[in-house]
C-alpha cells in the first residue's frame, strides 16, 4: 500500500506535460493613428521582439535619409579651397 502511495505522490509532484512546453510570447498592443483622417485609429499587436525590430528598421531608415539629405555635415568638405582671382 505504501508503494502505491509513493507512486501517486511522485506522479502528483511532477509538472504536467503541457507545462514544460514553451509558452508563446505575450503580445503588446498599441493604438496607431492613421495619417489623413481625424478619427482613424488602428490597433496593432506584436511581441516585444517584433516591436524592437520595427523600431530598429525605422531608426535605420531615418538615419539613411538624414545622412544623405539632412545636413551639410554629412558631406566631406572639398580638399582645396579655390582662391579668388583679382580683377
Task: Describe it.
With about 90 residues, this protein is of the alpha+beta class. The chain contains two helices and two strands. It has helices at about 1-15, 50-70, and strands at about 25-35, 40-45. The longest helix has 22 residues, at about 50-70.
Structural class: alpha+beta
Number of helices: 2
Query: What separation lies between the terminal Cα atoms?
Result: 117 Å
> What summary fits the major beta sheet?
2 strands, antiparallel
How much helical structure, as a percent, in the residues?
25-40%
Order of helices and strands: HEEH
Q: How do the strands of the widest beta sheet line up side by side? A: 1-2
Rg of Cα set: 31 Å
β-strand percent reads 15-25%
Unreliable stretches covering 5 or more consecutive residues? none
General form: elongated
Chain-averaged pLDDT: 75
Number of strands: 2
Amino acid at each position: 500500500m505504501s508503494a502505491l502511495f509513493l507512486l501517486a505522490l511522485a506522479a502528483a509532484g511532477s509538472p504536467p506535460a503541457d507545462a514544460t512546453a514553451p509558452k508563446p510570447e505575450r503580445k503588446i498592443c498599441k493604438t496607431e493613428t492613421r495619417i489623413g483622417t481625424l478619427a482613424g485609429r488602428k490597433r496593432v499587436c506584436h511581441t516585444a521582439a517584433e516591436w524592437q525590430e520595427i523600431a530598429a528598421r525605422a531608426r535605420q531608415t531615418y538615419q539613411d535619409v538624414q545622412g544623405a539629405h539632412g545636413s551639410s555635415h554629412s558631406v566631406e568638405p572639398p580638399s582645396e579651397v579655390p582662391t579668388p582671382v583679382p580683377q
